[in-house]
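Incident log, support desk, overnight shift.

02:14 A customer reports that sequence design results differ from what the structure should imply. Their input is reproduced verbatim below. On-call engineer (initials T.W.) acknowledged and began investigating.
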């Protein structure tokens, strides 16, 4: 398989990572480009011992986490005021959109590694695959996911109050 085929076949993974780690559309586009650049740079060393999706996940998540860390060191922009946020939220009439926004809002409060674990879990990866991608033990994946689920429940409860 060549580089373009792998990227095209797994473009959904890239978009999910960008949605998870990019707050604004422009951030997502920049992140997508950065991930593709890192994939291109690391493609010559890809040994095809792991599935292409596993390799792509690892590069994409590491790139996103590194970018988030670099950006957190910069001065953050001023947030939109609550009135503007309320207007935007009120225009979203669909209950599904509201639930998705609530979900992303809750996930946004997780650490970078926790976001990656949630993302990989929701993408139906096995604990073995998640462990390989993130670089932790198989049993640690289960422990961390249980803690993250409890944390997400607390966050959603707080949001709904």
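02:41 Re-run completed on a clean worker. Output:
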């Amino acid at each position: 398989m060549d580089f373009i085929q792998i990227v095209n076949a797994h473009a959904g993974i890239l978009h999910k990572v960008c949605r998870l780690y990019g707050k604004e559309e422009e951030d997502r586009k920049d992140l997508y480009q950065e991930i593709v650049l890192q994939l291109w740079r690391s493609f010559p060393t890809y040994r095809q011992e792991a599935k292409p999706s596993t390799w792509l996940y690892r590069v994409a998540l590491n790139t996103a986490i590194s970018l988030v860390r670099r950006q957190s060191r910069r001065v953050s922009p001023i947030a939109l005021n609550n009135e503007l946020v309320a207007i935007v939220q009120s225009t979203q009439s669909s209950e599904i959109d509201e639930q998705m926004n609530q979900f992303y809002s809750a996930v946004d409060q997780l650490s970078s590694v926790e976001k990656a674990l949630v993302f990989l879990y929701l993408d139906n990866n096995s604990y073995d695959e998640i462990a390989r991608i993130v670089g932790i033990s198989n049993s640690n994946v289960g422990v961390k996911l249980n803690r993250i689920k409890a944390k997400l429940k607390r966050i959603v409860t707080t949001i709904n109050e």
